Amino acid sequence: MDSNINRVCEGFRVIEDILRFKYNELNLTKRLKVSRHRIRTSLYQLDKTLLHHRDVQSDIGLIVDQDLNLEEFKSIESIILGNFKRVQEGLRTLEEIAKSLNRFEENTLFKEVRYVTYNLEREIIFYIEEKPLLTLPSLYGITYLKGSRGRSNIDIVEEFIKADLKLIQYREKDLSQKEKLKECIKIRELTSKNNVTFIVNDDIDIALLVDADGVHIGQDDLPINRVRKLIGKNKIIGVSTHSPSQAKKAELDGADYIGVGPIFPTKTKVNVCKAVGLDYLKWVEKNISIPFVAIGGIKEANIDSVLSQGAKSVAIVSELTLSNDISSKVKAVIRKIEEKSYNEV
Ligand SMILES: Cc1ncc(COP(=O)(O)OP(=O)(O)O)c(N)n1
Ligand SMILES: Cc1ncsc1CCOP(=O)(O)O
Ligand SMILES: [Mg+2]
Prior knowledge:
- The longest helix is centred in the middle third of the chain and has 26 residues, at 104-129.
- The chain has two domains: 2-129; 139-344, Aldolase class I (TIM Barrel, Alpha-Beta Barrel), CATH 3.20.20.
- The protein has helices spanning 2-22, 26-45, 49-52, 60-66, 76-100, 104-129, 153-162, 177-193, 204-210, 224-231, 244-253, 277-287, 303-307, 318-321, 326-344; strands at 139-142, 167-170, 197-201, 214-217, 236-241, 257-260, 292-295, 314-315.
- β7 (292-295), α13 (303-307) and β8 form a beta-alpha-beta unit.
- Helix content is 56%, strand content 10%.
- An eight-stranded parallel barrel has the order 1-2-3-4-5-6-7-8, surrounded by seven helices.
- The chain is an alpha/beta fold.
- The site of ligand LCLJCK34 has 14 residues, from β5 and β7.
- Keywords: Magnesium, Metal-binding, Thiamine biosynthesis, Transferase.
């Protein structure tokens, strides 16, 4: 009996953690927690003698849990559904055991909580579905004032929009907060008018002030769950990653997409880490289920090697901002990416 109680509580705990840390959803988290506590404390009301029957080594529950097919747990939704199933099955078993022991009070409690979980399951799945999955465009544009041949960030954003880029990140390391805010207000206006996604690098406060679509943060910035708390569940959080463990953590912590790089050496970013190479990109393609964008030293001339490792979205910074004809460059690169995905079908 107590191994089933553990299984039910563990299932609740997994769902609670997802809602709390990934979505920062306190109401649903609290309701799950109340049910978990009701089940957990039910054990204390049962005969203490039951605990003497605890036999962890030969507990069949351990074998069942080891058999859980991790391959099935690909999306957040399937993790939640899998854990609700675990909770409901556990509760059903507890109901039966309590009944056979003539513990009618506990039998009613387990049944009641099981019915509560059906409603919670529906509400939680609705809640998650409300947030559409992000699709990154094939080419991800980023501003780079120093490498823009004297043009302003606004000039570059206008060129990007004319060239039909669908996502633009404002990345500015040299202007004051006041100047950045002024530029971002203008960029929000331009991007909204043209249906372009607008991401602000580093500055969560500016992103909030101008109602940008999201933020891009690095490994040394605020933790993802704190940023989520600030910007809410409907905004995009992108996170830079340089290793498999960082990528897994970002995915679990609720990032909407990850940056993967620098793939090749780059001079655009100061204090950049060593190039991570194409193997890490391949690893991400195989092991990560949120969208990812390859970045760092990527040019029209070497993009094929990046695409052949499975990248569907690529960020090219200096080669675009240094170009005298941004529109032609963007079109040539997008054509290459789209040809590659067309050939894969
Ligand atoms: C799409 C994308 N990927 C990676 C980065 C780099 O972010 P970070 O590591 O925080 O470094 P800075 O850009 O802030 O210098 C990015 N900006 N965009
Ligand atoms: C912001 C950033 N993060 C990792 S590499 C990089 C800059 C990439 O610039 P470029 O495309 O010019 O190499
Ligand atoms: Mg940063």
